[in-house]
């Protein structure tokens, strides 16, 4: 996707990951690579320069959080700034009324009709039954194209190739489909003059009163997408943008960043000609994929979170070496909580997923607090030598904590299982950010 942009950025990240020392020279080289890749993808030069400056400032001045290497920190900065370039957060479509009306606008050739088909299928899969209205009176083939589309998806279509009044078509279509849960209105993509087209969009919008206007923009036009989005947004309130033809488009990065720059919500991207080739656009996921980062993001985030807290290294060592008492478990509970459910942490380490017994990973926060209350009723000796806890002690602990004998037994069972699992865990050498963090 996006021509060479992904390949170039992935190579840069690989190069960075292979460096032993991260100094000013390395940071500058990385930035040069990123600049080259982005400019090739038609990202606006001003945006590229801003981004470069921010990356450089942050990489050279921000101190990596404890437990995070300089390299991981720079990777994280590059990732964050690229996500920012594409608008940070994913915007979602919320269909919250009936009928929900979506008005599609966009220039001819942008991929509007194709995208309508993709959207209809996407929404159909979500359990809706979209009905389509064709108001394109300019392109004779438009109705036919939609007819075939709706036929193959088994959806209703309203249109009349002999009617040349777009507003009338819109009105009649809406009347026909007023009991439908979702209505998609297609519009013309061309007029004699661009102004006429934009005027018509304004009028149709007034008739349809759409809940959402989706603007389709051809990704191959690169940074010009900004002007197009601005022109349409003057006539009607654009709620979503779909950037099409990002498969193989060399200028896709330019289109995405230009649209994000004006704060327009890119909700979907078109990634091919087939009806399935529509993706929900999420800048974070998109950039991780583009950088070939996979799960690095979550690992780095988690490493950072833990580094922020003062991890008790001694207790961690004891835990990993297998000398693990109830007392250790008590002090480790909070840290485990910060790392996330054990199973989730393990799943992110290559070859470690599924190594933890099921019941050991299923400790919820609620259980953790229950266990803590139980442990508060234990003596020091019981905490450091849990093997001495037999029937009478179980009873006393249960009474003291206001819980049942079974609760104490459950805690002891959990302790045994965890101890066993952790012993295995400690024996394995861990590489990568998690390894760094654990050492
Ligand atoms: P409209 O005039 O805006 O309705 O455009 P169409 O839907 O007819 O699409 C114009 C051309 O772009 C067609 O050949 C489509 O197959 C193609 N197209 C649309 N979306 C995509 C996409 O995401 N990727 C690729 N490669 N082609 C697309």
TrEMBL record:
It is found in: Cytoplasm. GTP binds at residues 106-113, 186-190, 244-247. GO terms for molecular function: 7S RNA binding; GTP binding; GTPase activity. Residues 265-278 form the SRP54-type proteins GTP-binding domain. One of its GO terms (biological process) is SRP-dependent cotranslational protein targeting to membrane. Keywords: Cytoplasm, GTP-binding, Hydrolase, Nucleotide-binding, Ribonucleoprotein, RNA-binding, Signal recognition particle. Its main location: cytoplasm. InterPro entries: AAA+_ATPase, P-loop_NTPase, Signal_recog_part_SRP54_M_sf, Signal_recog_particl_SRP54_hlx, Signal_recog_particle_SRP54_M, SRP/SRP_N, SRP54, SRP54_GTPase_dom. SMART domains: AAA, SRP54, SRP54_N. Its EC number is 3.6.5.4. Composed of three domains: the N-terminal N domain, which is responsible for interactions with the ribosome, the central G domain, which binds GTP, and the C-terminal M domain, which binds the RNA and the signal sequence of the RNC. HAMAP family: SRP54. Part of the signal recognition particle protein translocation system, which is composed of SRP and FtsY. Archaeal SRP consists of a 7S RNA molecule of 300 nucleotides and two protein subunits: SRP54 and SRP19. Involved in targeting and insertion of nascent membrane proteins into the cytoplasmic membrane. Binds to the hydrophobic signal sequence of the ribosome-nascent chain (RNC) as it emerges from the ribosomes. The SRP-RNC complex is then targeted to the cytoplasmic membrane where it interacts with the SRP receptor FtsY. PANTHER family: SIGNAL RECOGNITION PARTICLE 54K PROTEIN SRP54 (PTHR11564), SIGNAL RECOGNITION PARTICLE SUBUNIT SRP54 (PTHR11564:SF5). This is Signal recognition particle 54 kDa protein. It comes from Methanobacterium formicicum (strain DSM 3637 / PP1). The gene is srp54.
């Amino acid at each position: 996707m996006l021509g060479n942009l992904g390949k170039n950025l992935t190579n840069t990240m690989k190069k960075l990951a292979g460096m032993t020392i991260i100094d000013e020279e390395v940071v500058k080289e990385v930035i040069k690579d990123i600049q080259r890749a982005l400019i090739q993808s038609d990202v606006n030069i001003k945006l590229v320069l801003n981004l470069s400056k921010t990356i450089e400032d942050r990489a050279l001045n921000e101190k990596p959080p404890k437990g995070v290497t300089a390299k991981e920190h720079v990777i994280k900065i590059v990732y964050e700034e690229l996500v920012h370039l594409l608008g940070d957060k994913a915007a979602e479509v919320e269909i919250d009324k009936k009928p929900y009306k979506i008005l599609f606008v966009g220039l001819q050739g942008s991929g509007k009709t194709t995208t309508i088909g993709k959207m209809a299928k996407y929404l159909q899969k979500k359990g809706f039954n979209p009905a389509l209205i064709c108001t394109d009176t300019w392109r004779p083939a438009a109705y036919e194209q939609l007819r075939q589309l709706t036929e193959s998806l088994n959806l209703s279509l309203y249109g009349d190739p002999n009617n040349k009044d777009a507003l009338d078509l819109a009105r009649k279509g809406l009347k026909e489909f007023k009991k439908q849960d979702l209505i998609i209105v297609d519009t013309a993509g061309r007029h004699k003059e661009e102004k006429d087209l934009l005027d018509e969009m304004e009028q149709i919008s007034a008739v349809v009163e759409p809940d959402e206007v989706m603007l389709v923009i051809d990704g191959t036009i690169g940074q010009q997408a900004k002007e197009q989005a601005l022109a349409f947004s003057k006539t009607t309130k654009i709620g979503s943008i779909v950037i099409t033809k990002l498969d193989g488009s060399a200028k896709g990065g330019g289109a995405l960043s230009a649209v994000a720059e004006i704060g327009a919500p890119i909700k979907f991207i078109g990634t091919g000609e087939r009806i399935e080739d529509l993706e929900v656009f999420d800048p974070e996921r998109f950039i991780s994929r583009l950088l070939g980062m996979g799960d690095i993001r979550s690992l780095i985030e988690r490493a950072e979170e833990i580094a922020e807290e003062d991890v008790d290294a001694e207790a961690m060592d004891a835990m990993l070496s297998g000398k693990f008492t109830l007392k250790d478990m008590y002090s480790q509970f909070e840290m485990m909580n910060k790392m996330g459910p054990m199973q989730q942490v393990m799943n992110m380490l290559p070859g470690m997923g599924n190594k933890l017994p099921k019941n050991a990973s299923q400790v919820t926060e609620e259980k953790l607090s229950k266990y803590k209350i139980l442990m508060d009723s234990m003596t020091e000796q019981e905490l450091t030598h849990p093997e001495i806890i037999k029937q009478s002690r179980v009873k006393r602990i249960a009474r003291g904590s206001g819980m049942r004998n079974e609760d104490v037994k459950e805690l002891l069972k959990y302790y045994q299982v965890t101890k066993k699992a952790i012993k295995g865990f400690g024996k394995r050498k861990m590489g990568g950010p998690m390894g760094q963090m654990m050492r």
